[in-house]
Specification:
By secondary structure, this protein is an alpha/beta fold. The protein has helices at residues 9-19, 72-81, 100-114, 174-180, 182-190, 200-211, 238-242, 247-258, 274-281, 293-305, 350-361, 363-372, 386-404, and strands at 2-8, 28-37, 41-51, 58-60, 63-65, 84-90, 124-128, 134-139, 145-147, 150-154, 158-162, 192-196, 216-220, 263-267, 285-288, 310-319, 325-335, 417-421, 426-430. A hairpin with a 5-residue loop joins strand 8 (134-139) and strand 9.
């Protein structure tokens, strides 16, 4: 069983400021975490933080005592909602392991905690180092300590603090190493990346991610290849269209033919399927190649609920009504849990989400409502071409790489979205600093029902 601890970037920043106030003394905080459980993975997703005031503690450079009763409201909420509690403190001297004093204090803390909460919940303890790195452990069923395999931070920069060394590289990785460094390439091999939507932009995302050497790729798309989309699904053939081959299997075939060793999980299901949602929730990074508003909203919700970084890719082509093109462009939006959303950025709207969902699941009712004037401004057939899809998808993949291996001149917190305007021949970036009032409060919900806070799931 693997264990992960996941934090939003804003949560990590708040903890770092509190745990390292500049006086070289230890400090402590409590994390309330939603739980995501799979057969081989338990992820603790930080939902809330309670900072233990410095003046309540006895603080020394290598010793800390604090009143555990300070966390009673957290313990009660954990019991009520089946959540986990993680104690996190600092090691100002940079000691990269749990000390014997940590072992003693953790045993006392966990013994006290299990008196308040259910014993089956994997409560934990973590340590932050001066550079912001975190290592952690949970209490196993037998009361022993179990190391957390990965602590992941989804912020402007992506941080993955792994317990074990990353996989070795091979000759095919040489050019990627020259561009981004061996450490980054090793990290890519340890990541599990989800790609939802394997058609126009999605097929390009899959192609580039696989050739970067991603260790595991989860593919989600319910549709099959047809002749009308052969112009934009790379690696799809006329034979695939005639056989109505599932798009996820076309992508699987392409990845396997590369011979890079990436593991692939193809899921030919609608994104609202709970199995598909749970598979994506088990990933480290999400990419979306959907043009429908409801699918993009679900991916944004998965990102928020499970503390995952999400790269959304969208393409727009507008005809001028006279056989020409009025606008060609696209955008890559990077979504952090706890930050702004596609809704707050006005990329999608609640009306568009409802209309797209109805169009995909009840076409007759959609047509009736549109004819009656209840649905406005929703394009059913959105034009797309291979050249534009590939260009916009590459913006998303390079944005991902820039957050994993910083190479931009500006800090990553100045870039939340990259906009491409081929008609005007320019590229621009924008920042969206305000958190989404709708989704931000749902950060770290994890598996708490209703799933994704959508009663229909």
């Amino acid at each position: 069983m693997r264990h992960n601890l996941r934090l939003a970037g804003g949560q990590w920043s708040v903890l770092r400021a509190h745990l390292f106030p500049g006086d070289e003394l230890e400090a402590v905080a409590l994390l309330l975490c939603g739980l995501h459980r799979q057969e081989h993975l338990t992820a603790l997703c930080v939902r809330d933080i309670r900072l233990v005031p410095h003046d309540c503690c006895r603080r020394e450079p290598d010793l800390l005592t604090w009143p555990t009763e300070f966390g009673l409201p957290f313990y009660n909420e954990a019991l009520k909602r089946d959540l986990a509690v993680v104690k996190i403190h600092s090691h100002p001297g940079g000691y990269p392991d749990f000390s014997r004093q940590d072992d003693r204090s953790d045993r006392e803390f966990f013994e006290s905690l299990t008196g308040w909460t259910d014993s089956h919940v994997p409560h934990g303890s973590a340590v932050m180092l001066p550079d912001g790195g975190i290592f952690a452990r949970v209490v196993g069923p037998d009361g022993g300590f179990v190391p957390v395999d990965r602590v992941a931070v989804a912020g402007p920069d992506l941080h993955f603090f792994d317990r074990e060394q990353a996989a070795t590289t091979a000759e095919v990785d040489l050019r990627n190493i020259q561009a981004f460094g061996e450490g980054t390439v090793r990290q890519l091999k340890r990541l599990r990346v989800g790609v939802a939507g394997c058609s126009g932009t999605g097929s390009w995302l899959v192609e580039m991610l696989a050739r970067l050497g991603i260790g595991e790729i989860v593919l989600v798309d319910p549709d099959v290849v047809t002749r009308k989309n052969l112009n934009r699904i790379i690696n799809a053939t006329q034979a695939d269209a005639e056989a109505a081959a599932p798009k996820v299997l076309v992508a699987l075939r392409s990845i396997q033919a590369m011979g890079f060793g990436s593991k692939v999980m193809p899921i030919q299901k609608d994104l609202r399927d709970t199995g598909a949602i749970r598979a994506l929730a088990g990933c480290d990074v999400l990419f979306g190649g959907f043009d429908c508003a409801d699918g993009r909203d679900i991916l944004n919700r998965i990102s928020t609920s499970y503390c995952l970084p999400y790269f959304d890719v969208g393409v727009r082509l507008d005809a001028d009504g006279q056989g020409g093109i009025a606008y060609i462009g696209g955008a890559c939006h990077y979504l952090q849990p706890g930050g702004s959303s596609l809704i707050s950025r006005k990329v999608i709207t609640p009306e568009g989400i409802a209309a797209d969902s109805l169009h995909r699941h009840d076409l007759a009712e959609y047509a009736r409502r549109r004819k009656a004037g209840y649905i406005h401004g929703v394009a059913v057939d959105r034009p797309a071409v291979c050249s534009v899809n590939g260009l916009v998808a590459s913006l998303a993949v390079n944005d991902f790489l820039a957050r994993l291996h910083r190479f931009r001149d500006e800090n990553n917190d100045t870039t939340d979205a990259v906009f491409l305007n081929l008609t005007g021949n320019y590229l621009e970036t924008r920042s969206f600093p305000e958190p989404c009032p709708v989704l931000s409060p749902k950060t770290g919900r994890a598996d708490q029902p209703p799933l994704l806070d959508l009663p229909g799931l």
